[in-house]
Amino acid sequence: QILMIDLQNLTKEVINLLPQQQRIIFQLSRVENLSYDEIALQLNISRNTVRNHLVSALKTLRAHFIKHDITLFFIFFLLH
User: pLDDT for 14-30, tens place per residue?
Assistant: First the structure.
């Protein structure tokens, strides 16, 4: 439980560091489960712009987790 809370807090920290547009798109995609097309329509931007922002946000998250020695296996283990 404690490790899961720490992981959630670390994830929130990184998400809050993202540029505003990346943060909004990440949340719409990953939290609200909207498709690229739905996000593009809602934000009045192209589907490619949505994809580019999401790719950048995920790279930032991945780099932050690597920096903190959090492996994908460990994350997967905690989530299941």
Answer: 899 999 999 999 999 99
